[in-house]
Amino acid sequence: MTEQRESTESVASLPEPDGGVPVTGKRGPLLEARDLHVEFASRGRRARAVDGVNLAVGEGEIVALVGESGCGKTTLARTLLGLERPTSGSVLYGGEPLAYSSHALKAYRREVQLVLQDPTGSLNPRHTVYEAVAEGPRIHGMSDEHDRVVSALARTGLRPPERFLNSYPHELSGGQRQRVVIAGALALDPRLLVADEPVASLDASVRGEILALLLRLRDELGLSALVVTHDLGLAWNIADRVAVMYLGRIVESGPVEQVLKAPTHPYTQALLSVLPDSPSPVVLSGEPPDPTRVPGGCRFHPRCQVLASGEAARAGVDGLCGSQPLMVLPAAPSSAGSHVACHYAGVRPG
């Protein structure tokens, strides 16, 4: 029996708080991963970079995908963009499976745009702002190129846009460069942005401005976004829902306030404990395991502070933690509340 079909009683489903943001409309999620697996050859073995993931992003919704470096979140994002082919499972856009022909991917990437974390690396230093933003409309043969460039720059707060058209990246601040990158995506009128660590390379003074911009674009244009980050503080400030990823799996997901105010999975608790206002940081032992050697049972158990402290043993689930696989979590629309893949969470009181 496959891992994702086992031990369904060990996955806790928590009630939803009032005011949750709906994930699915009448037509279902805008972008969805269904039982997604992505494997790579590594030293004669198979690295399970994405190892059974269900994830949905609804119309006008911002979902944060969080986890440590190496957990698989960037590979998942690249697969959702069609830059990687899944080993198994599927990516659906508007309810239809993603096609991988050149023509289909070109049309898809007009509507689902990538925003990278390093604006300096994303922009060609020899191209002006106009050329950078116009690249997408040119690729797609749009006749109203100039109007699209000017409109996109204005939407990102680079006003008046004419002031920036002939500037080069080195003449701009880091925040302005990131706005140019976002404008390049907006020039195609996308429905969804995939933002990979969109403020990681920026000074603290401008991070809030870029996050506020993404929220404003959601409110004004109805844009959806998947924000990939290691920063739960960022997720708190921008996301409607959060999905916490560890070693290729989503281990906890749900409405952001529910997950981050009352985290249930020990891994989520550890990630939150390093925030400045946390009373007691949790120090995890060791590094994330090699994805070619995924531990048996709960994949987090070799580093789990609940298991190490004896709490899991007192709850009578320590044997399960090291031996009984956990199921793949559902995509977790907000109507279903939060989900967590944890033996201890399913039995602990309260």
From TrEMBL:
<dbReference type="InterPro" id="IPR027417">
    <property type="entry name" value="P-loop_NTPase"/>
</dbReference>
<keyword id="KW-0547">Nucleotide-binding</keyword>
<keyword id="KW-0813">Transport</keyword>
<dbReference type="GO" id="GO:0005524">
    <property type="term" value="F:ATP binding"/>
</dbReference>
<feature type="region of interest" description="Disordered">
    <location>
        <begin position="1"/>
        <end position="28"/>
    </location>
</feature>
<dbReference type="Pfam" id="PF00005">
    <property type="entry name" value="ABC_tran"/>
</dbReference>
<dbReference type="Pfam" id="PF08352">
    <property type="entry name" value="oligo_HPY"/>
</dbReference>
<dbReference type="InterPro" id="IPR017871">
    <property type="entry name" value="ABC_transporter-like_CS"/>
</dbReference>
<feature type="domain" description="ABC transporter">
    <location>
        <begin position="31"/>
        <end position="272"/>
    </location>
</feature>
<dbReference type="InterPro" id="IPR013563">
    <property type="entry name" value="Oligopep_ABC_C"/>
</dbReference>
<comment type="similarity">
    <text>Belongs to the ABC transporter superfamily.</text>
</comment>
<keyword id="KW-0067">ATP-binding</keyword>
<dbReference type="InterPro" id="IPR050319">
    <property type="entry name" value="ABC_transp_ATP-bind"/>
</dbReference>
<dbReference type="InterPro" id="IPR003593">
    <property type="entry name" value="AAA+_ATPase"/>
</dbReference>
<dbReference type="InterPro" id="IPR003439">
    <property type="entry name" value="ABC_transporter-like_ATP-bd"/>
</dbReference>
<protein>
    <submittedName>
        <fullName>Peptide/nickel transport system ATP-binding protein</fullName>
    </submittedName>
</protein>
